[in-house]
């Protein structure tokens, strides 16, 4: 089954688009359900062609830009956003430059090159690479494709919610759990939930210590900039959360929680044992809501209902991991 037709739902979309993302499976997880005491369904965005949800919004944005005459693309990400942009550029036959920070592993750079991207290393963290990408985009005919902070991306990401409405057959979830990096997924999900009448359903937004720009903003009651990214979850590595994500946290029920890198890596390893799927730490942050008893603790404190029946867990992506890397992370946090 094909996903929702963006051209029929979105006023900004006046052209026919090629759907470059797939409708991902929604499957019940018995291990997660047993741990939390209610039904947990996993939305497997790690099965996308580019291995993450990012392809939804980025494919939409690129095609909007192309309809306006751009001849080349530039993106800034050594992770899921860069891969999604490179994949879409290859499928749509348009050249792309991807700027990555020096922390990007060589195997990820190689994947980008395999997709046909021209890869440039700039700066120590994503924010530095992003500045270089924005400078490149000042040249005529080049369109900048950001990783998370643009309404066109959120429009694409909200298709996750339309698919959930279809697959849940009229059942409204009691909770949706997701990871937050820069806030693009959160914005798309919150926007989609508003569109389908799920504004009353809380969102549990998970981050890791050291890549917790949303949690820092919630605590400060304003958007703040982290001094550095110290977490192993580099794909959550934005120093500043999208302003719209923080705005949503003020307008609707979004619960922000963080776990440690050690908890995150332990979660990733247990998820591999339970489901035979390897996901990155950025994805493990969301899964930690169950494996690290965050949901149980919220129920005990009265922040979540004790009688939850249906939870949706967005398994956001699995690109930024391989077996040697996972073993190294285990050693780094003292789990080896």
TrEMBL record:
Question: Which lineage do the record's taxonomy fields give for this organism?
Answer: Eukaryota, Metazoa, Spiralia, Lophotrochozoa, Annelida
Needed cofactors, names only, are: pyridoxal 5'-phosphate
Organism of origin is Capitella teleta (Polychaete worm)
> If you read the UniProt record, what top EC class would you report for this enzyme, in one word?
lyase
Extract the GO molecular function terms from the UniProt entry. Answer: L-serine ammonia-lyase activity; threonine deaminase activity
EC code(s) of this entry: 4.3.1.17
Answer whether the UniProt record assigns the keyword Lyase to this protein: yes
A Gene Ontology biological process term: isoleucine biosynthetic process
Superkingdom of source: Eukaryota
Q: What is this protein called?
A: L-serine ammonia-lyase
The UniProt entry's sequence similarity note says: Belongs to the serine/threonine dehydratase family.
Q: Which UniProt keywords are present, listed alphabetically?
A: Lyase, Pyridoxal phosphate
Q: Pfam families under this entry?
A: PALP (PF00291)
User: Any idea where the Tryptophan synthase beta chain-like PALP domain is?
Assistant: 19-317
